[in-house]
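Title: [Solved] Phage tail protein 3D structure

Original question kept below for reference.
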Amino acid sequence: MPRGTKFFMFNNREDWCYKNVLSGVNFEDDSLVFDFNSDKNSAFISISLDSFEKETVWHRIRFDSEVSRNSKIKVSILASDEHDFWLNLDGDINFTNLNNFLLNKNVDVGSKLSIFSKLSHVSFENPVDMPLFKLKGRYLWVCIEAISYDSSSIIKIRSMKIEFPHNNFIEYLPEIYQRSGEDSFFSRFIAIFQSMYDDLDDKIDFIPANFEPLNNSYDFLKWISRWLGIRDVDVWREDKLRDMVSNAIEIFKTKGTIKSIKLMVEKFIGVEPIVIEQFKVTENEFYVREKKIIDSLFGDNSFVFNVFLNENNIKTSEDYANLLHIIRDMSPAGTVCNLVILQNGIFLGHHCYIGINSFLTREKYSLISKKINNEEGITMID
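Solution (posted by the thread starter after getting help):
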């Protein structure tokens, strides 16, 4: 975007709703979605957008929208240095503040659309990128009317960007080209290339934002994830994948260590696991005496490591397979990973870890009277 260019951006719910006229619309995330199942006119009308400078020449308006077949959007735009207009209201012509008229809840939306269509200076159908340099005035109003011939049609506007003041590449050309004037064929022709250049310039300016995991699109996030070496990105929940990519540097600079494996598991399921390496178990003084049992639990060679999680953290066999695959991607070459799911209980010959699948508590127990049937009869024991 050329230096000095300003803009109004509508790309979230607060922008669309703030003191504007909305009728027959819904919201999908931050997108404006027109609803054709109601008996209301489907429309959006903005109150005046203030450039803070009289006789501002507006530059262009851009839409990121989705319009299905058998439907269209009609965009009407008005510019003026004043808020007051002569309006014909039910046969009475009055000098009226346009903002007050638009925000008047006693006036139906159909009447507002009718008045606006008479006042507007330019109108477009299904616009994508339209020049506005014919419009001059401090204030700008935008009216979007959705029209459909099928109730199942979809019209969604993800963003609307209005740029000002007008700038033209002709200003950078020799004087002979500048004489052609703003509304000449050459000026309109060169505006095509200017628009392409400005769009490319915007993309370059916002490259850092595109690579920000918390802000970029989900499709781009998955591409970045694969580029970072995260396989099977579809098994990750979107919020966890964003968190994972945000911490990728910390994780991957220690790849192949217990620290990175713990971090990866915690990002995937939200719980830090216990990781025990077999060669460290053999250093325990009880290993020689209990070698057979320890080898059955922790492996019989020094290249085995075990990742322990509670059964509450892994719900399905699919979750188990996905997590095991993720751990193996982070494991050093030649090592063997055992992903052990601990059941809630103590079982002889199985793993038992206090705080994971067994707990120490302080509780008072009272001996309950029991009846024991023996050869001599029934005896009561307290």
